[in-house]
Write a structure and sequence with these properties.
79% helix; mainly alpha
């Protein structure tokens, strides 16, 4: 009976691994003109809604020459906005990294009361408008809040200062790493961790030598997305920043101010830096996906 079961399992795995010829499936067989029409529409959509706006940013940024571009991105307010954007990202991303790994590990590897509530709270920033999130922080830490007088008395500034921007950035970005790791850890199961513990490894050793190597590509993917969102966030940061020029303006807010002042070349110059960030993020994302697929193939062949 065991031998028969093993042979059936082997046959099932072989059928899953065997290449599938989708061309022979009538449900996926279309005439050539339909395929070309779908491909053309996809390319037109891609060009019209992605490539054209991206190209416009760089064209407008360099429209008045390289000297104007360098002057725009090296201006004091622009440098302050770049610096503040980097500071917010450098604080928010590591904190979300710790939270994301901890939450994903707890949800994927353990059963506990309140697990579904934790998953719901992780998804909360996806359903709440960033503007509403910023307003919530204003109501919590603003001058009219219940802690406002105490903050003023002790000369602690949260709203319309760097701490408020960091808090808003953390709120809107903390689901990215956790949401990337949870399904990955659930798919991997608990067998390797349980085997390591049986062999005498501690919980920390199991995490560093078993769990972390298995999730490294998904973790990097989540960090890249989290960083891109942190640097490009506008709504929540706009509410809590106070728009103090040269002090609490991030790059997106600086772009808005320059555009409203009809300084189009300067606005597009700063916007080009965010566009470059998006392109770098896309390249890194593609590379990580390729490495993850390669690692999966190597593990299957091994």
């Amino acid at each position: 009976m065991a031998a028969a079961t093993a042979s059936l399992n082997a046959a099932h795995l072989a059928s899953l691994a065997a290449p599938r010829h989708y061309e022979d499936n009538p449900a996926t067989r279309d005439t050539p003109w339909i395929k070309w029409m779908i491909l053309t529409l996809s390319l037109l959509f891609f060009a019209g809604f992605l490539l054209l706006p991206l190209a416009t940013v760089f064209v407008e940024a360099f429209k008045k020459g390289w000297d104007v571009y360098l002057a725009a991105i090296s201006e004091d307010d622009a440098l302050s906005a770049i610096r503040l954007t980097l500071i917010a990202a450098l604080i928010a991303v590591p904190m979300n990294l710790v939270f994301g790994i901890s939450a994903a590990w707890a949800i994927a590897k353990f059963e506990f009361r309140g697990k579904q509530l934790l998953i719901t709270l992780i998804d909360l920033p996806f359903s709440v408008s960033p503007v509403v999130a910023g307003l919530i922080y204003v109501l919590l830490f603003g001058a009219q809040s219940w802690v406002g007088p105490w903050l003023i008395e002790h000369d602690l500034k949260i709203m319309f200062a760097v701490p408020g921007i960091v808090l808003a950035t953390i709120f809107v970005t903390f689901p990215f790493i956790a949401r990337e790791l949870i399904p990955l850890m659930q798919a991997q199961g608990k067998d390797e961790e349980e085997a390591a513990i049986v062999l005498g490894a501690s919980g920390l050793q199991t995490f560093w030598h078993v769990t972390l190597p298995n999730i490294k590509w998904g973790l990097l993917y989540g960090v890249i997305l989290c960083n891109a969102r942190a640097m490009g966030e506008f709504g929540a940061v706009s509410v809590v920043s106070g728009h103090i020029r040269g002090v609490t303006n991030t790059m997106p807010l600086q772009i808005e101010i320059l555009y409203n002042e009809y300084q189009f070349a300067a606005a597009f110059a700063v916007a080009s830096l965010l566009a470059l960030l998006a392109l770098v993020t896309l390249v890194l994302k593609t590379y990580i996906e390729w490495q993850a697929a390669r690692s999966a193939r190597d593990s299957q062949q091994g």
